Amino acid sequence: MAKALGKGLQAFFPDHEDKGQGAVEVVLLKELRPNPYQPRKTFSEQSIAELSDSILTHGILQPITVRKSIKGYEIVMGERRFRAAKEAGLTQVPVIIHEFDESKMMELALIENLQREDLNPIEEALAYEKLMEHTEVTQEQLAKRLGMSRPHIANHLRLLQLPQMVQQFISDGKLSMGHGRALLGLKQKKKMSVLLEKVLQQKLSVRELEQLVQQLNEHVPRETKPAKIKLPAILQERQDRLRDTLGTSVSIKPGKKKGRIEIDYFSEDDLERIVELLVDQQEEHE
Asked: Is residue 79 among the annotated active site residues?
């Protein structure tokens, strides 16, 4: 996940500083409960095992952040450490107790996970969606607060428009984010299952899938499709950059004196999204 969360927690909670934390306390592991707002749905068994080995050797170097609940404590930040400590056979762990309300607890959990590198694209998209809903900010405002580009956030959020089955394949790593964005362009949604099966069986690349989606949308059989002109490397690189930035299929078609750029959109909302991205890019360079 290519992003720079230099602003991180400070952007949302300016008063959230280490010096304001409470003293470190030791509590029984059995008194801790996972954060109900945890955006991460899957935890790497290998990663937990490696952290467990490290804890057995060096101990828990960073206390787990918790809040007091009716019974025991709820984990605000540090569920991986909690799971690894449990696997290591620890009976007690160091914690720092904070007083957080429901909203702040959820936001801290989401931001902490976004600062990690191993969220899958769907988990990341859901985290952005929840942050926008609960902090009532726009995509642009969220991007500024997290120190990342708006296209990065917009392209992830678009994945949530996919059928649940496709989202699950992306979460499981069977499809890439690029495959998901290509599938968003399919006009006849009833063909999604057949197309998805073909992608998985034939292990189609993102470009191959984009071409197939375009053929289906235009009702052009593969055997009658005109031969694709191979772009010079520099134009191919620029086409790829435009595709990644706009989150849709882009074609650069050079000519002898002039060329043209074709940008696909699939609804009025999608067109508005692309226009806003182009305007944002222009404003950033003014």
From this structure: yes
